[in-house]
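check these tokens.
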Amino acid sequence: MGLMSNSLSFSLRRLWTLDKFAYSLRVFIAFSGALLLSWTLADITQLLPLFLGIIASALSETDDSWQGRLRLLIVTLLCFSAASLIVHWLFPWPWLFALGLGVATFVLIMLGAIGQRYATIASGALILSLYIMISIGQQSGVAPEESWALLSR
């Protein structure tokens, strides 16, 4: 029994040192938190956008020092917020939506020209905007007045 517990303990310690495991654990905790929030609020409709946002965030995650992560987290939050707001606000008007999406894509590509880490954030923001379009399409569109209500929640 002692040999098996030592072997298990060694395997768990070795697993914990792997970067992929720590990354996967953070993503698992984020998914669990989103699921718990949706379940607690009894609002399953928010689960899909939350999950898609977590996926987009996980795709744009980079390894860095804590100061670098903080700076990139702020840039990520700004880019993701701008992408989601642009999609929500302009979705009811197709021509403005196409123009806004084109300008946002250009700006995000230029952000990606700064460096690889910013390119991953930009691609995550573009993926998030696609996910939001899918989510709005499934909810049969959102009126502009409702988008302000979504922000105040």
Summary: The radius of gyration is 19 Å. The chain has a mean pLDDT of 77.
